[in-house]
Design a protein that fits this description.
Length: about 525
């Protein structure tokens, strides 16, 4: 490994920060990680109350929305006995195990809160940055250190979002954002309105409904309910998402998505989850396995959006009034915000995200500051995306990556979905492949056809797990191929250790339709390659 010479500040020791520290070391950089709290883990570090400066938080009973095989880091799998959808305790322990395994904690400074990142006095010539920070007690008046580069990994959840609703200041009950919620016991016997239509809103409504609360779930325009499990009983984002659908059969992928939505809710209007007339299609996605049961059992009632508060209740858009409401919980998400940075680096004059590949501010004179995790929800694999963004950032700061001209970067920004401060859920598999291509770690399917045809087939028809990005190139991992083919065996074992369910390897000859499609794809690839080279 080359001697470490460039010092890079990594801000945050959560899921994205840990992967970025490791990537910096792999690229020969010297990372210094600033973590404002006393433990690593970010929002997966659970405490009974919000910590100073904390915005996003988890609650006691939360489990993951995506299966263990698809969200873990690319070269550090979970044991096969780990539940398919692990609880928060197991995720936090996994992050600590990851840091221990790769020796990352020695780079972390705990109780160090970064308050500002500004160009150094010689930034015009050197590209360096001054990082202003305080210790956990804020008693030293602040310190400043200079770094060759900065990677911000503090997450895109910069501030809570609570809609401005008329009369809320006169409401006599309790209002709170969902980041303050920890468990249902304080709400037993109360009438609760949960506002929101995405992941957290559905989870909180169901949990509260099961604990002797009367729960109303207020939605502006319905939602797309996505069960964690597909019709075949397997995790949807493992069995329903692959590169063949995303790359060549986009209509098939959309059809699979629509069919999966109906797997638990064939009639959204029946449950009150459908889009309202003349309001367009719902944009929200709710990963939830029990919302329909809770509605049918009377534990949760779907209501329209709130347009006004009274002293004791709420008035809805359809004219209905819900009275005697004790608590209103806003599960309305977060705003993208980085208080330590100049916001002009992140957003353009119209308020749209202005980052090349969602990572690099294009207005920088020197590309020595990047942001990892500005969009905090990717489907199917958020952590794999963060890891690749960290690897991309470290490669850039090491000086081993060449960027296109500013005009090309701006064109790239315009062609992608452009969120404002309200983050969106985005598909990520092809985006991950794009970052991997920049890094030289995306496998060549044409080459695999001659060296490992089974792996070439798997590239298109097996789940797009992170291990694909450890097969070759910088920081490759000898266990990557085995990890790719162990996915289904690990899932089957976690569901039932006594099961004799066949693994993917034993089912290979049964993939008849996929094999025919793959054969046609191979022939087309060879034909067009020969035509192009001729």
């Amino acid at each position: 490994m080359k001697p470490m010479n460039k010092r890079v500040a990594v801000i945050g020791a959560g899921a994205s920060g840990l992967a970025t520290i490791k990537s910096c070391v792999e690229e020969g950089l010297e990372p210094v990680c600033f973590e404002r709290h006393d433990q690593l883990g970010g929002l997966w570090y659970f405490t009974e109350k919000l910590r100073p400066g904390q915005v996003a938080a988890t609650y006691r009973s939360i489990i993951t929305n995506t299966s263990k095989e698809i969200f873990v880091y690319s070269d550090f799998p979970l044991p096969k006995e780990t539940p398919v959808f692990p609880p928060r305790q197991r995720i936090h322990q996994y992050l600590k195990d990851y840091a221990d395994h790769f020796g990352l904690e020695k780079y972390i400074r705990y109780n160090c809160n970064v308050v500002q990142v500004v160009p150094a006095t010689d930034h015009a010539s050197s590209g360096k940055w001054n990082v202003h920070f305080q210790d956990g007690r804020g008693q030293d008046g602040g310190k400043i250190e200079t770094f060759d580069g900065v990677i911000v990994c503090s997450g895109g959840f910069g501030d809570i979002y609570v809609p401005q609703i008329s009369g809320i200041e006169d409401y006599e009950g309790l209002t709170m954002h969902s980041n303050q919620y920890r468990e249902p016991s304080p709400f037993e016997g109360k009438r609760v309105v949960v506002v929101g239509a995405a992941f957290t809103a559905g989870e909180l409504a169901c949990e509260l409904g099961r604990h002797y609360c009367k729960v109303y779930l207020s939605m502006r325009n319905g939602t797309n309910v996505m069960p964690r499990l597909a019709k075949n009983g397997l995790p949807f984002f493992l069995s329903g998402v692959n590169r063949a659908n995303l790359t060549f059969l986009s209509h098939t992928g959309k059809r699979i998505f629509e069919e999966h939505k109906k797997c638990r809710t064939p009639d959204n209007e029946l449950y009150g989850l459908a889009a309202k007339k003349n309001r367009g299609q719902p944009e929200s996605i709710m990963s939830n396995d029990e919302i329909q049961d809770c509605i049918a059992a009377g534990q949760v009632e779907i209501i329209d959006e709130i347009v006004n508060f009274t002293k004791t209740g709420v008035v809805l858009a359809d004219g209905r009034t819900v009275s005697d409401v004790d608590v209103v919980i806003f599960a309305t998400g977060y705003l993208i915000q980085y208080k330590m940075l100049d916001q002009k680096l992140i957003f353009d004059d119209s308020g749209y995200l202005n980052l090349y590949k969602y990572i690099l501010p294009v207005e920088l004179e020197h590309p020595t500051l990047t942001i990892v995790g500005v969009l905090s929800t990717f489907i199917p694999s958020t952590w794999n995306t963060f890891e690749l963004q960290g690897r991309w950032s470290a490669r850039l700061l090491s000086g081993k990556m060449t960027l296109p001209c500013k005009r090309r970067m701006q064109e790239d920004i315009r062609r992608r979905p452009r969120p404002t401060r309200h983050y969106k859920v985005l598909d990520c598999t092809l985006y991950q492949d794009e970052l991997a291509r920049d890094l030289g770690i995306l496998p060549s399917v044409l080459k695999l056809l001659f060296t490992d045809p089974r792996l070439a087939y798997a590239f298109y028809f097996l789940p797009p797990v992170g291990a694909w990005y450890r097969l070759q190139g910088q920081a490759s991992w000898t266990g990557a191929r085995n990890a790719i083919f162990s996915v289904w065996g690990n899932i089957f074992y976690a569901m039932n250790p006594r099961s004799t369910k066949r693994t993917w390897k034993m089912k290979f000859i049964e993939h008849k339709r996929c094999i025919l499609c793959f054969s046609a794809l191979v022939l087309a690839t060879i034909y067009f390659r020969r035509t192009y080279t001729a």
